[in-house]
Amino acid sequence: FFLEIVQPILLGKIISYVEYYDPSDSATFHEALAYAAGLSVCVLTWAFLHHVYFYHIQRVGMRLRVAVCHMIYRKALRLSNLAMRETNTGQIVNLLSNDVNRFDQVTMSLHFLWAGPLQAVAVTALLWMEVGRSCLAGMAVLILLLLLQSCIGKWFSSLRSKTAAHTDNRIRTVSEIITGIRTVKMYTWEKSFTELITRLRRKEISKILRSSYLKGLNLASFFAVSKIMIFVTFITSEVLENVITASQVFVVVTLFEALRWTGTLHFPTAVEMVSEAVVSVQRVKNFLLLEEISQCNPQLPSDGEAVVHVHDFTASWDKASETPTLQGLSFTVRPGELLAVVGPVGAGKSSLLSAVLGELAPSQGLVTVRGRIAYVPQQPWLFPGTVRSNILFGKKYERDQYAKVIKACALEETQDRCCPVSESGKLRLSQQNAVYQDADIYLLDDPLSAVDAGVGRHLFEQCICRALHEKITILVTHQLQYLKDASQILILKDGKIMKKGTHAEFPKPGVDFEGIHLKESEEAEPSPVPDSPTRSSQPPESSVPSPGSPRRLLDDAAPEDQDTEIIQVTLSLESYSEGKVGFKTYKDYFTAGAHWHIIIFLFLINIAAQVSYVLQDWWLSSWANGQSTLYALTYGKGNIILTADSDWYFTAYSVLTVGTVLFGITKSLLMFYVLVNSSQTLHQQMLESILRVPVLFFDRNPAGRILNRFCKDTGHMDDLLPQIFQDFLQTFFLVMGVVGVMVAVIPWTAIPLIPLGIIVFVLRRYFLATSRDVKRLECATRSPVFSHLASSLQGRGTIRAFKAQQRFQELFDAHQDLHSEAWFLFLTTSRWFALCLDAICAVFVTVVAFGSLFLAEAVNVGQVGLVLSLALTFMVMVPWCIRQSAEAEDMMISVERVIEYTHLEKEAPWEYEYRPPPSWPNRGEIGVFKVSFRYSSDGPLVLKELTRWILSRRKVGVVGRTGAGKSSLVSALFRLSEPQGEILIDGISTLSIGLHDLRKNVSVVPQEPVLFTGTMRKNLDPFNEHTDRELWNALEEVQLKEAIEGLPGKMNTELAESGSNLSAGQRQLVSFARAILRKNQILIIDKATSNVDPRTDEFIKKNIREKFAQCTVLTITNRLSTIIDSESVMVLDSGRQIEYNQPYQLLQNRNSLFSKMVQQVGEAEASALTETAKQVSFKQRIVVKVHFCGSLFRISMRV
Predict the structure, then answer these.
(1) What are phi and psi of 180, to 5 degrees?
(2) What are the phi and psi torsion angles at 516 (to 5°)?
(3) Is the peptide bond before 917 cis (omega within 30 degrees of 0)?
(4) Please, are residues 360 and 291 in contact by the beta-carbon 8 Å criterion?
(5) Least buried of 303, 314, 518, 1161, by fewest C-beta within 10 Å?
(6) b/e string for 569-599 if b means 16 or more Cβ within 10 A?
(7) CA distance linking residue 1086 with residue 183, whole number of Å
(8) Cβ count within 10 A of residue 789
(9) Residue 464 and residue 431: Cα distance in Å, rounded?
């Protein structure tokens, strides 16, 4: 600050020497040399101290940002379920990407808030000493600008707050689409969601554009305000008839130029940054003040006997709800006991487990838990990593224990990493994780529904009954055949205990008690059949889908003495480009925002602004020389500028000043308009491209990696890049103008300029070769941070249950440290580059200063004053220009990354020129001919040479052991990856029509129900295609009407993110309601009743038979009771069709695969299934005979 003020004073002394040059006065010459030396020391010292300060202050900003990110993640792991309704993944990702960045930026600008006004006071004092009262007019312009900046600061705060809210909504919606991409594609919602996000983006851009215009005005003020201040000062001097010497003219100009950087660039930027930082701090504060999970029942040390004791427990997820979720629950479970919890959908079973975990705070009663808890959630959660790391979960590796757990949970094979992990695979990995922890208490939330009967029995007998026989086990289940082995049975309905006791205390077998149909249990259960089918086509034993090199998973065991307390997460860095950013990237970026003629016009406006700017300086120099000559001719010696007869000079100067202001404002606003539009266009193209890529892309890329593009990189394009480009172009033209004027006024200045330009060019090229790759590395190391955050938010309940918050916090900090290393490397290399540039330019100022003294006789005072004042400007402008050009190229990495996502490999077109008839498919016949299917081109076949013709209106069940390829059949039918072979629907090949024409005409109830944030109505009918009556009818048909009517807003009740305020069974029923609303001729049900109770399953089966009686229905399930009344059953194994016939016909062959699967469910259950199949077969034979006889009768009548 002090050095910036001293420089104009020393400059004035040097100009005074030239103005009153006397070759015979050596003392004055030596004094001028001292002034030149002092100026050189000032600029060199300023260059060093300036960058040392900014280096340290940037480190402070980085540390502050890292600390706040740490707090945000720690808070995210502690959020209660109620708090998660007030926030969402999109907002938290936005906080970590855009909001915390304000700390990096505000620390660099903060001190200008006090340095700016202080420097203005000091400059005013110096100006008063030079030109008297005239300086007050120029300073008045600056004061008005500072007052205007305070108003603009409030606008920035308001706009930032509104922009952040719109960004949260956009990121949340994108996050939900990425999470539920399979549902989005199978329901053909891509176009509708594109329109939704486009509307959200348009609202966001409208606020960003206003904020950008304010930034443009700030940059325009930096460009033109100093000229206005000089103009007003000299006008005032003329009015007051003050006499100003030529040296005073350039001292005034230099002082205003010194004030220009602080007063018109750094101070407005500081106001802008502080205003936005205040909003970000408030947003972070609001997030940190959200409700945390209450430690109402901490796990007491297991120094004695473990116990779970619940007494008169009443609680509700929604405090405003009149009906509690759980009411008056009381039970006790001790070691060696198995408590089975059963009940209909929405009875409160999962909420009971949440209460034991401490996730659901009591409004009455208490929960006492003594011992360590292990938890298997209903929706299994895995973090990106190897199978072994997911099983160990930070626990020390022990080979024998590891092998026992694998055997108990039926996990024995490996799988190619490109295949998605099935739900049953995730479930078994989750269960293995729990068993390996060797906890005291095991909470199992319906772990047997997602697997086939054989695997389910293995898990129950080998894992639950044998491996956990000494533990406290609370099992929530819909598999009622296992109740006989439970120590206690607890029946829940509407959050209340309807009955509690042992199996013997319940009513007689087969009696329907409070909605739970207790079937007869057998005395002895057969063990799994030895020659049961293998599980090789899609088993779960893979690296959890995440990019990375293939590796052996179950055989990668570490030495026994290895302590793996740190959880091993596989998150390889994403690939990135190398070399410089190509011209095509720049072209795509600029042309995305405007046509070429607009860009050319923008270039011409910049040239016009710079011409008027340079002409002002040249005119001022000519005026000073002209007046000096006039005074010398009139009065003899002396170079005093006369103010008489100067109307011509002031008129021209006024025109140039007005032109500078107008051109400066126009070019700034137009530049921001073009580049913000570019950001909007590229975001739109990236969104459309992402929704067109195959599902495999989402299996290989974590959600955080994709969100990084939509959040951080898009934020760079919105906020930073337009400002950097405008700043660079403005300073580039200013530098060109400065160089042109200096060379035109004193040609010898070109001598030091040529080597300086060469050195700067070489230095910039050398720096950018490193900077680009460091910036790409920094962008790539951000993705693991977001991926880890998104993954942790999904599994926060599991993390808290295992008390693994600290371990996952350490993982997050490790990801942050990796990113900080890349960021710090980028920061230090940039600061080194800036220091080198300033030092080089300081040498140039030194050469010009001393050269002016030695050539004082050959030049006039106007030339010296102009060149010296421009040299000081040059010293600041050139490094800033070069740094901004480098920063622009570094920021173009974000554009490069976004454009990369606009050119992803796309799936087949949504519509072909050939469109199927509007009534297609009207019969619902499905022909599958030699169909093979793999999830990726280098992956294994999961369906092999499958051939089958399914007649119209047939009800076909598809069964098989876990990993047999059942869900892969759905993927092949919907072309989620392109199958080999041919699939015909009503005679039309699915490969010959567009994906949307195929998918919108086939209804599906997916295995994983996906709900979006919003009302229940929006989730049923996202795009208002049905009436309320149709929606209520659909809810009634899936037994959800009563539950939805009980919500505070009924169908307008806001659902939490992913529908977390509904049970898993209720979410599946919502998917059924969607299928009913679509009214297609073909319905595919993919294990969609796995999370509902048997009674609801029977009810849905009945409705499906009635509602879809004229439709073809394929039911894929692990529950044999669901498909035993089907007309035909397809049995798959290892991706091949093994059997296809009526269920009863298959059961007649005791060696058939289907028969063996039925035997594995238990003797009593097998008998019931066989009897049902027999009755259905008998009815079908009667129908066939009636049809056959009727046909003969019609034929005889015709004869």
Answers:
(1) -105, 35
(2) -110, 115
(3) no
(4) no
(5) 303
(6) bbbebbeeeeeebeeebeebbbebbbeeebb
(7) 12
(8) 26
(9) 10
How many beta carbons lie within 10 A of that of residue 487, not counting itself? 14
Does residue 942 surpass a pLDDT of 70?
yes
Could you tell me if 292 and 80 are in contact, meaning their C-beta atoms sit under 8 angstroms apart? Answer: yes
The pLDDT of 975-985, averaged and rounded, is 90
3-state secondary structure at position 760:
helix
Token pair, residue 733, equals 């033209």
Q: Could you count the other beta carbons within 10 Å of the beta carbon of residue 659?
A: 18
Which one is predicted more confidently, 576 or 554?
A: 576
**Are the C-beta atoms of 495 and 347 separated by less than 8 Å?**
yes
Top pLDDT among 724 and 25 is at 724
Burial of 296-307, coded b for 16+ CB within 10 Å and e otherwise, reads ebebeebeeebb
What average pLDDT does the chain have? 80
**Dist CA 1168 CA 1180 (whole Å):** 19
Q: How far apart are CA 414 and CA 289, in angstroms?
A: 45
The single-letter code of the amino acid at 486 is A
Three-class secondary structure of residue 340 per DSSP: strand
Residue 104 near residue 62, CB atoms below 8 Å: yes
Q: State the helix-helix crossing angle for 647-690 and 583-591, rounded to 10 degrees.
A: 100
Going by C-alpha positions, the residue among 421, 1009, 1019, 1060 that lies closest to residue 796 is 1060
Q: How confident is the model at residue 377 (pLDDT cuts 50, 70, 90)?
A: confident
DSSP strand E in 879-1030: where?
926-933, 943-950, 955-960, 980-985, 988-989, 1002-1005, 1014-1015
Mean of pLDDT values over 640-655: 61
167-176, 193-202, 499-508: least confident range: 499-508
> By the 8 A CB rule, do 664 and 220 touch?
yes
Mean pLDDT lowest for which of 233-242, 445-454, 625-634, 951-960? 625-634
**Rg of the chain in Å (alpha carbons):** 38
Q: Please state, in angstroms and rounded to a whole number, the distance separating the CA atoms of residues 699 and 696.
A: 5
What one-letter code names the amino acid at 873?
T
Share of the chain above pLDDT 70, in %: 85
Q: What pLDDT, on the 0 to 100 scale, is given for residue 750?
A: 86
Mean of pLDDT values over 775-783: 85
